[in-house]
Amino acid sequence: MLPLSYAIRNLFRDRSRLAQTVGGAGLVVFLVMAAAAINGGMMRVLSASGSDRNAILLGAGSEESIQRSEVVERAAEIAAASVPGVARRFDRPAVSPEIHYMTWLERPGGERGQALLRGVEPEILWVQPGVRVLEGRFPGPGEVMAGRLAWRSLGFGRDDLRPGAVVRFDDTEMSVSGVFAAPGTVMESEVWARLGDIRMLAQRETVSCVVLRLESPEDFAEADLFSTQRLDLELAALRESDYYEGLARFFRPLRVMTWTTAGLIALGAVFGGLNTLYAAFAPRVRELATLQAIGFTRRAVLASLVQESLLACMAGTLLAAALAVWVLDGLAVPFSIGTFTLEVTPGIALGGMATGFLLGVLGALPPAVRCLRPPLPAALRAS
Fold it and tell me: How many CB atoms lie within 10 A of CB 282?
């Protein structure tokens, strides 16, 4: 085998070509890690947003969108009294009537963004036990409470939705009473207000849905039976987890497009890298033949060329991994129903390393084999 120092020395023969190889490999690896982080973040937030212990009562025919649903408000009291499996907190049923309403939220300075408002009552904290109030308090009349990522999805500054700030909905001013967290869910991008305030703001007499907290997932059958028996209420029952699984299927084309875009760009970078390696190896045909003439086998020479490519590609991979951790890790990305946070997990990092390794090996083989193919006498006479 040729010594590793030979491969390292050859790398620095042409520094501009080395920079192209390292940069191309780094670009491919960074795109692969970014695509994996985006897909993983979106799936993680959608899967974590729904609980199999929560049942959602929607208007029949509106199972795919809570915002289109209409349910009479008295359905909450009827369900609380009729569904045996509803959990109880402080001897009261854990039932949350809600209005989901999309509208424009405006700052006093005129800047505005589209916000998802959720009209709720304090019982929602029993239905969604993962919610924690980080600052301030639960909203009262004329107040709102913002999710900790709502400012990012609206395009505001972080301090624009802190307690004490004032926001405007359709010429109605409301003050921010607090900030809440619901780690890993789409709720962190929402703005909550009291149910009565949203009812007046949306000018509606019905609610969007009724969410029931069940004692166990098996009690969903009772909620489903209730929705089919009360034909006068025109209800449909869904597990909360099933509802968000449906949203995940809806966003599948977006995830496929992300992978496709990353793949096309990576493919272009791979072909560019092949051209670079062809240009790097082609002038060395006589040198490679000389190595064979003094006793090194073609397999040893091929291994040395692969080593050169691997060293350059893995250097680009390390740079890409460092850039991904610095730029992507913790980055909040807004999409239509919320915001998800990117995480560069160990699996994504290993995937990036594997991508760099494959680039180094597979990218070097075609030009290396081509340079070693000529017979030894012809290669020694090559100019």
Answer: 12
- Count other Cβ atoms within 10 Å, centred on residue 336: 13
Q: Which of 226, 189, 235 is nearest to 341 (CA)?
A: 189
Element (H, E) at 83: none
Round to whole Å and give the CA distance between 46 and 73: 27
Residue 124 exposed, middle or buried by CB count within 10 Å (0-12, 13-18, 19+): buried
Rg, C-alpha atoms of the chain: 30
For residue 77, what is the enclosing H or E element?
helix 74-82
Look up the pTM and report it.
Answer: 0.76
Q: Rounded to an integer, what distance in angstroms lies between the CA atom of residue 272 and that of residue 264?
A: 12
Burial tier of 139 (Cβ tally within 10 Å: 0-12, 13-18, 19+): buried
pLDDT tens, position by position, 56-106: 999 988 878 888 889 998 999 999 989 998 999 888 999 999 999 888 888
**SS3 for 152?**
helix
Query: Sign (positive/negative) of CA torsion 75, 81, 84, 86?
Result: positive
pLDDT band at 382 (very low <50, low <70, confident <90, very high): low
State the Cα–Cα distance between residues 263 and 237, nearest whole angstrom. 40
Domain residue spans in the chain? 4-48+251-380, 54-215
Within its chain, how far is the Cα of 201 from the centroid? 32
